Records
---
Amino acid sequence: MSQSYNRGLIEDFGRWREFSAGMWAWVFHKFTGWVLVGYLFTHIAVLSTALQSPDAYTTTIRTLESLLVVRIMEVGLLAVAVFHILNGLRLLFVDLGVGLESQDKSFYASLILTGAIVVASVPTFVAGVF
Amino acid sequence: MYEHDVIVVGAGGAGLRAAIAAQEAGADVAIVSKLHPVRSHTGAAEGGINAAIREGDSWEDHAYDTMKGSDYLGDAPAVEALCKESPKETMQLEHWGMAFSREEDGTVSQRPFGGLSFPRTTYAGAETGHQLLHTMYEQLVKRGIQVYDEWYVTRLAVTDEADPEERTCHGVVAYDIQSGEVSGFRARDGVILATGGLGQVYDHTTNAVSNTGDGVAMAYRAGVPIEDMEFIQFHPTTLPSTGVLISEGVRGEGGILYNEDGERFMFEYGYANNAGELASRDVVSRAELTEVNEGRGIEDEYVHLDMRHLGEERILDRLENILHLAEDFEGVDGLEEPMPVKPGQHYAMGGIETDENGETCIDGLYAAGECACASVHGSNRLGGNALPELIVFGKRAGYHAAGREMEDAEIQTGQRGEWERGEVDTPVEPGAVSSGGDVVADGGERTDGSRSSSEPRSDGGAAASGGSSSLTPEGYVERALEAERERIEYLLGKDEGIQQAEIRADVQMSMTRNVNVFREEGGLKQALRDIREARERYEDVYVADKSRTFNTDLVQTIEMQNILDVAEAITLGALARKEFRGAHWRKEAQERRDEEWLKHTMLSWNDGTPELWYRPVILEGESKTYEPKVRSY
Amino acid sequence: MAERYSSFERGGRRWLWQRITAAFLVVVLAFHFFLLHFVHHADEVTFAMSSARMETWTYYSLMVLFLVTATFHGVNGVFNALVNQGLTGSRKTAVKWTLVAASLLLVVQGIRTANAWAGITILPF
Amino acid sequence: MSTQVPEQSEQESSAAESETSVAQEERMRQKRDRAQARERQRQKEESEISPDDEDTYQLKVFRYDPEVAGKQEPRFDDFYVPYHKGMTVLDALMYARDNYDSSLTFRHSCRQAICGSDALFINGRQKLGCKTQLSDLDEPVRVEPLPHAEVVKDLVVDMEHFYDQMHAVEPYFQTNDLPDDELAEQKQSRENREKVKMSTRCIWCAACMSSCNIAAGDNEYLGPAAINKAYRFTMDEREGEDIKQHRMEILEQEHGVWRCQTQFSCSTVCPKDIPLTEHIQELKREAVKSNLKFW
Ligand SMILES: Cc1cc2nc3c(=O)[nH]c(=O)nc-3n(C[C@H](O)[C@H](O)[C@H](O)COP(=O)(O)OP(=O)(O)OC[C@H]3O[C@@H](n4cnc5c(N)ncnc54)[C@H](O)[C@@H]3O)c2cc1C
Ligand code: HEM
Ligand code: SF4
Ligand code: F3S
Ligand code: FES
């Protein structure tokens, strides 16, 4: 057909307001997955300071751990990891064909559980930085 | 111009089966359809397909039931062909993978249906038509048969001999709804009409919005007689706002009908003291309308069908889909409140006259499915007999059009000298309006280009004028194409006038008021006057949407003419037939009159002045004659 | 019809491995987090402690396996995501090998670190 | 059931006669009055429908026409439609078209959720117009063409791509063991028919395809409806093992089942309640299983 109106990118991605549970789960899982790979690379980079000398390693870790931002980022990392794990489990069940009818509920459960775990572990994470 | 051996118009069950058969017979076939095939209304059929496939059943019994159900107005050769071939065709569907419901032993399930002496209705849940339609479309995809979908066929390209029986059909003209292109389709071997029902003639119907009787009207105007048009089946329980069917199952399980005053009117007013709500479709429909007409209807429109007393458990178990239908389409919770219902148009028994091979009297023109009348249903169709009709006669028409040898037909088509002429006293002239001026909207124009409307006109350029018979087949298609282009340009060019929606609503209302399950002379005449007036207004019709892209306004405007011609034909037949047979009831004559009326009502367009005549019914079957009996169960 | 799709790739294996690694990671990642943030607090980490753990043969192999699975899982996930977003043709091939290279680098670097802790020097790097 | 039993027609006429009483006339008079009142009401409604009317629904409808000046830039038009109980979005659109603007264009046919022509984007959800009660929606009711499809005009979208995907999975029954007797069926167990039952209900409305973000991003992705169509045959025991293998190969290709990221929107919007995600997931497992066999 020669003439037709293509509503373009906005059409494709501008509908987030209308996303349903499964789509949000997908978006979050993607996001957390990427953050985790990113972290994995940085993590190994930081740890490799051990190759220089034991002391370099210990000081790097100690300095980093004494910074509040790093602690906060760690909490963030925990949130990301916990959500990815929980939703990952949800997806594994979906792949096995278990509980598909309550997929939206299990997504909300992952969210709530993530929140709870993160809040509960904040004290442990920030302990000693102040 | 497009060219194929066989052109099938319409892609419902009948059209798809015809196309597959024509291809099997070696033809290059194409389907032209105003809807994509899977959108066809065959998909709405729920009940099932009658086929004598089991031990203890026989095609003879099926034929007997069908003939009895038809109130002895079916033609035996067609009825017997249907019943003999239905088993094989039904199994063919099964072999194509159709998902029929199954018995424990893996064979297909059958259920009892009204008017059948054996439970021979083969079904697939409550969605037999959907499964049938999709299974056949799948075969179409497999075979790579070409489909021109969303092409609206507007006119047949037929030669213009004075006698319709000498005419030949060379193709069709169609309008591409998506692009606005008008094009000719030349059919080297034949055109098969499979355009389905005509429910949109009424304002309340179980039929789809696209069931506007196009095929019947086009064939009629091209010269093919149309048969038994007055026989329209009404279903007593349809939802008022949409016409969605509420199956007989509700009443079967014990559902009760109440009027506005909460009276169980089937008994209280003695419409059917024995059977009550379970009386036959026509009896219940008439009872409901009597209630409404006498002021006891709810909102003067409908009655209540109540199933609450059956209890939630039983309803959920047996009638769950009914709950969904009432909820989705009427916003009513059947567990909490009674459901509104009223009678709705359901099926047209009549249609394009064909023989049992699907051929019309015009050479190269065939018809199958609901638009055709080989006459298997006579004056009343049995539930479950339409789907087998699609596959049996669709296939026959397909083979025949593609040139496969067929047994000679016993039904003779066309108007023959020896057959009785009919007379009917009409308050206004039926047929084409002959007002002066440049009006192409209402029909064709003379082939010689003159547009003097005082002379008879016809669609498809079939006016008898010398010289043009020398045209080549392509020439005829070309000429029809020109005429159609002109009409479309005219409609789009006109800037003011009246819109089709208004005329359509008026005709539909009048038909529902006057040519419904109740028919009496005064009402029928009123309908004819209304139709006449609508025809006159249609002369001034215009299309407000000027776009060439997906112009549904234009399509509906063209459909409107078909609605007019078909509505008039129904009314003329109803006015002529003074008896009560099958679905046709006349106040003036409330019994069946075999001495006088054991014959088909035939109507020929006759270039704009409809002519009524009668053809005798063929009751002699292969090995027995079906003697008319009282139709009681 | 189906011809359009004649060149198919058996994506099924990678899909399956993504699930298998995920299932493995659930356990190990949880263990990892728990051990390094709750049992031992991160700010108390020293080379010596890490070293002490790594010298245990089982812990060492678990961590290497952890690294390999996480890398596969993460990188494969990223690659899938890009392919799903419409990455095709030569760019796809390029990205694929870049990712493979990056993963190798990561794994090698990770093992070297672990070796440093564990005091293993047999490997050439 | 009869048309010929004489008592019945007598009953009918006697019922009619005895009712021609004073009461009956009174009824008829009331009925005429009511009809007139309704007619007046209707005219009133048509002449002065205003946004604040209690019994009207406001529709915001997407309009676009490549040829008509003023419609080439997409816009939303407001229509105020008088409401009656049971009115669906499709009814409202038809009313607006027949009474206000005959160029308002949308596909529709059956009005009963079986033809699949009127899947629309209604208040942010893919729904069938004919199966959506106005009373279930917040006002104004926003009606748009299906997202992720090219708009032909107003609410009509180009369906070709959807049809291509449906056709790409060899959507027809294939078997090697038909019974020799043309009058005998090829048996199928009840369980098996039950298993494929939901998948056979698809009406090709494309709501699922429109709701799937993956399908939006990858034009070659078969999409939930086509995969479901393939499921219908793959799981049918009447097709043999070799054909199943062949079907799995089609499904496993790059743009096949693996593309699905289990977003579930397809299952959420399907008007026929087909568990699409479940079917896709089952096929993924089938694919893995059949691959394991060859490892
Ligand atoms: C609600 C309902 C339930 C039913 N249940 C049963 C049942 O249980 N058992 C039974 O036996 N029967 C049943 N029937 C009757 C039966 O379904 C129909 O008679 C039958 O499906 C008609 O099929 P068809 O192929 O003739 O037409 P349709 O399926 O209506 O197809 C008509 C085709 O023609 C095309 N077309 C029309 N006009 C044009 C044009 N001008 N140009 C191009 N194309 C055109 C359309 O696009 C469409 O593809 C039922 C009917 C209804 C309405
Ligand atoms: C701990 C348990 C984990 C579980 C259960 C898990 C589960 C999953 C699953 C099931 C997927 C596939 C989603 C899909 O294809 O539909 C996935 C994707 C992904 N995972 Fe994990 N994962 C875990 C840990 C990790 C870790 C440690 C990383 C980082 C290295 C990671 C990075 C990713 C990435 C990048 C993706 C791809 C996301 C995308 O689609 O864009 N995951 N995960
Ligand atoms: S699967 Fe459901 S949503 Fe998708 S096309 Fe079929 S009926 Fe429509
Ligand atoms: S929405 Fe799309 S991602 Fe899968 S579950 Fe449905 S196809
Ligand atoms: S009109 Fe047919 S599905 Fe809605």
---
Amino acid sequence: MLSIKGLEVRYGAIHALKGVDVELKEGEIAAVIGSNGAGKTTLLQAVLGLVRPNAGVIELGGKPITRMSANKTSNLGVSLVPEGREVFGTLTVTENLRMGLKKKIGSVTKRQFEKELELVFERFPRLHERQNQLAFTLSGGEQQMLVLSRAMISKPRLLLLDEPSLGLAPIIVNEIFATINELAYEGTAILLVEQMAHKALSIAKRGYVVDNGNITLHGSSTALLNDDRMIKAYLGAH
Amino acid sequence: MKKQSGKKWTLGLLVVVMMWVLAACGGGNSGGKNAEAANAPASSDGAASKEPILIGMSTEATGDNAMNSVNLYQGVQVAVDQVNAKGGIDGRLVELVVRDTEQNPTRGISIIRDFSQKEKVLAAIGGFHSTVMLAQSPIIMEEKFPFMVATSNVPASVESGMPWTFGVRMNANITAQYALKFIKEHFNTTKIAVLHENGGYGKGAAAAMTKVLEAEGLKPVAVESFDNAKDKDMTAQVNRAKQAGAEVIYLFGQGAANGYVLQAMDKLGWKVPIVGENGMANKGAQEVGKELAEGTYAIQTANFNVDQTRETAKVFLADFTAKFGHIPTTFASAAQGYDGAMMLFQAIEKAGLSGDLAKDREAIKNTLETNLGTYSGVIKDWEQAFTTENHDAVDVNSYLMCVWKDGKLVISDKQ
Amino acid sequence: MNQLIERSAGYRAAAGWIAGLAAIGLLAAGPWMVDTYYLNLLFMIGIFVITCTGMNILIGYCGIVSIGHAGLMAIGAYMSSFLSTKYGLSFWSVVLIGMVVSLLIGSLIAIPTIRAGGVYLSMITIAFGVVIHEVLIRWDAFSGGPLGISGIAKPQIGGYTFDLKGMYLFVLVISAAALLLARNLRRSSWGRSMIATKENEIAAASLGIRKFAVQYAGFAISSVLAGLSGAIYAHANSFISPDTYNFQTSVQLVLIVILGGAGRVLGPVIGAVIIVFLPELLDMEKLRMALYGGIMFAVLFFLPKGIVGTLDSWLSPRMRRFVSINPRQASSKPEEAKALFASPVRAGGQPILVLEGIQKYFGGLHALKEVSLKVEAGTIHSLVGPNGAGKTTLLNVISGLYSSDQGHYTLRGQPLIPRSLSAVAELGIARTFQHSRLFKELSVLENVMTGLAKRAQSGLGASLLRLPGQLRSERLMEETSHALLDLIGYEGDRDMPASQLPYGHQRMVEIARALATAPSLLLLDEPAAGMTASEIEQLEQLLRKLVSQGLTVILIEHHMDFVQRVSDTVTVLDFGKIIGTGSPEQMLSDPRVIQAYLGAEEVAASAEH
Amino acid sequence: MSLILQLAISGLSVGCLYALIALGYSLTFVVNGTLNMSQGQLVMLGGVLMFGFAELGHLPFFVSFLLAALIVGLLNLGIERLAIRKFDKGANSIEWVLSTIAVGIIIQDVALYVNGPDEGVTPSPMGDEMLRIAGAGIYWKEFVFLPVVAVLLVLLILFYKKSHWGLWLRATADNRTAVEIMGISSNKIVAVAYMLSGLLAGIGGALMSTNYAVSVDIGLPLGLKAISVAILAGVNNPKGIVAAGLILGISEAFIGQYISTAFREMFVYGLVILVLYWKPMGLFNARKTIVKV
């Protein structure tokens, strides 16, 4: 579904990504873990096109999307849940979800949208209670549920998640991760960037450890869990 | 590196464009005045060989109510064409040096210095915008060349203490005397409300009418002002005049603003005679007021909607319509522009030019003041229009009261 | 070696002065060379230079684009004309009164303008400009209404009455003085503080610079200069009317500054020359204003930095390569770096900072939950924890950037209410930011010197006139800043704009700038992020040196090995709560910490490591 | 009694004009914090085009009305592309104020060159009859402003609330990066906002020319007055802006009558300054929501 070869990204003097290769198939979760500032977020932004890579090739379902703008890639079925969530604070919960329809917003009938809403509210009853509230009044966990549902409502082929566990209480993190697992089961390919390495690897099939712009470790989740180099690389001990 | 060189490239391009623009105008400028290329017949015998006579033209082509000032400029152009058609002034063609003050006093001042020092004109004509004219007057005194004020009604710009400015215009004081005489005669009342726009034009007229009334121990029943460009609803102004028991309105707005006064009167169901001047004669008032303008009076110095009785006026109207395709939209400004220019040319011819700029300017001034002689203009026949004490050519009995009758401004039977 | 540098710098300054004087000498000969037409244009250029130098300070330094300054020129003009025609006072007294009244009205405009900012700022100045214009049209008794005031007396000294020549020379002297004032201001701490508040209000506040006071000074100078030039114009042309200073004139003033190059001392001169001569050259009748508008647009589009700005950015890299002042060697005596910062005597084990029960909400997000913390004086106290744990929020609350909903603070035993960044900075708490907030327009040295602005604040007047006292404090500031740059081991070019600094160096210079405020407590937000291994080594050495001289440091960092090597105590935050405080070894092996970081289930295996 | 009613009614029609132009400002300011300082000139253009098509081109009234509005809308699209996009660099970038002022100067001078300085009034389909309410008179052609503005306001609110373009507009106002992530180009949304604002200006101008004279120099004063309305109301509140426009129109009439016609103008700008001192975000500005609908 998604193949990244030799991806390089530079911000002025900083060399954020130095040649990264990632593979992802339908319905598969791949975790990208690593310490802060290792280049994880840059990777997701490069895939969606928010950042223009300096070198390397990104292909979605065999089609190159390396230099495609964010809104075009998004309409090819790639949804990103950004770091810090980026809800539309001054829009209501339902309006946020309606934005998730992307370009199809004009063609989707009211009834069809209502059906989608039911699916979302069924999965996250708390959003049902707060559906007419303005998004900025929601708690951290609720906002995470909202942006996740918003990203899924357009039935993307590829879902990019940037640290969904950020600032959430452990029980809520578990709830979110359970949902991510279900989404993968339903066929969406998920690239999960996460700091909580163990939690990410518990639901992902394969994992990549990123450190200072390079992929230092890569393999199946179980292999990585027992590899003590992972903890050392993780805690940033150089 | 690409972005950086891109920027330098655009910088280079811009510099080239600027140079081209400046050169193009500069070229045009220094090569000779890009003035109104008077379409003198090429075949005139050797007249072109002599230096052209330069006359400055200060206009307000841009900005608020530019439609009136265009008439002044067109009147002068017709005068220049006529003189050049007859071979110019003793063989030398007249050339206009045109400058636009943009209704900005600072620019008006720099234009006077431009006329006097850079273009070295013999004399100049202009003075439509009252405030700009007031700013220009002291500078004209410094630069010492004759300036013909052809519209601005503000008395101060052509006082006896100002030797170098001459007026072929409706001086607000004289207009007010004429208007009061007219109102007393035909409406036998002195209960006059003055509604005026808050510019130099309106303010000058209001002050003049108040002075004229006070001379007779009276006072205007109401004096209300409005902003020509901004105000669209005059209900308050009209209502205050009505409450003051006014029986005649002395209206000094520009074009459309007078129309809004008519609308307000119509809404208040209050009909009293209205006496105005150039602003009322302009088609803007009629455009807004439509049939409400019927029967309103406008003090003018000429009227081109009727067939002309005076010979000069006939020729002037024919030439004007030929050149511009329509009759003047504001009669007084066009007529005053023409007569002002012709008097200047007559003075130049009579004074005879020695070639020394300062002496010639002095000579023209003295000729204007002393032996200008008779001049039969569009407005009237003048016998020595100016004297050293009085620089205003238009006196109380050279006015022409006009009235709006079924959409056209015609000469009123009541004078 | 140092003398050579000083001498070459001295040469450049001397050359500048000679060129300046030569130019003024040439211009002074003007009246006898050109006729009154060009003299009037030169006079107008002088008038615009005076006002626009003031506006250049406002737009270029303080970043306030006022589109209403023609109103202030009008006030100066009308006050002096009214007093001189009505009461026959001499020109010299009425001009002063005019300037004072412009200052008063300017202050009235300044208060809402500085508070508003953004597009509202321009709207306020436009509204003021239009109100002044309307008042002048209406208030006949004072302004003579739309016909204005005529016959204004020309200035006189003894028997001599000023004609155009005299007025031109007078304006030439005043505009030269105004340009000199602007140059001095740019080289003073007031000028630097203005540019600091313009570029990064938060960073400036963290150095104890109060935005309102600094920007008000800019407004005051521009109002006085506008009033002065308005009065001179009125008396020179002995006529003044409301139309002379209307909305279009205000736009023209702003255009002159932008066209010349905002923030460049010579900008207004070039701008004024173009704006005054252009209408004279474009004497075509049709579409004249359209071309004028077109050129205005082209300049904004193609030359955002203005003519002088673009030339400067084109020439200065070449100039610098050609006249490269080689960098100062690290001064030979780093050890006894004199007490660069007034660190208090070790407060006998009593904690420098105590936080109790701090709560902070962002709408629905509960960012800080019951945070209580003690920070020992003269130690390095690190805050660690996963992303979004609330570390930066805590730092922002301590430094006064955010206000906390609950909880109280004690600093050196006294209760502390962190009302604002500048207030907290004055109490000796300095900070750096997660993302670099250096002042790009200022040079590296000037950036550090802005840190000293709070302490060595010489008067505005002294700065404008560059009095000896102010010069001395400038020298002192320069010395201290060089010492601080040596302290952090900065070897690069100290005169180049901070925007050209490599990323790692930016962090170090930001620390030097924070140290310049002589703090007793330094808050560092991820200083090592983006640094190379050698730079981290340098940072470690610096922190040890600082702490040894009694400074206390609160450090947020993700490089665990760096934290382990340098911290005395470590506090771990997770999900807005403190889950543990203790020595680095203790904390980094605590199972709860690892669980918080790695998000491992209660997997016994990993806990053993 | 009829005097007060008369003052109120005649003030109302002028107030409608101010409201219509100010609405144009709010549309663009809400989306990316910029507005077109040459909005006044756009209104003038709408009026001049209307007069040109209807009177000189002898096109039917409604055809010329639509043409005028559309042309001005498309022109504003171009203005956004050239004069706004390059300069819209975050919160307090100011260059776009100057670039749009320059555009205003160009529009006014080109209009003068093409149309000449004359004033013109387009005959209104409502004719010139007078409507009398309890003694107070108002022309039908003036009175029709009220329903037109009401309809436009309702359309605008429905547009914000119901249509997805309105939703996109509000989303762009709230968080531009999030909009890009949602597959919508925020530049396109800003361009649409400017076109709508141009449309409103065109409609305002065309409507105005049915009762008031339009000439090339009416743009700037109208633009400045409408900015005051937008500031008074708080730019992100369409209902507040229409209310502020009407209040302003009516109070101008009453101030003129009961205080003095001379100080009427100063009252407006004095009020603006007072508001800016006391509530800089405007009287009806709703703090939280980006667009108060």
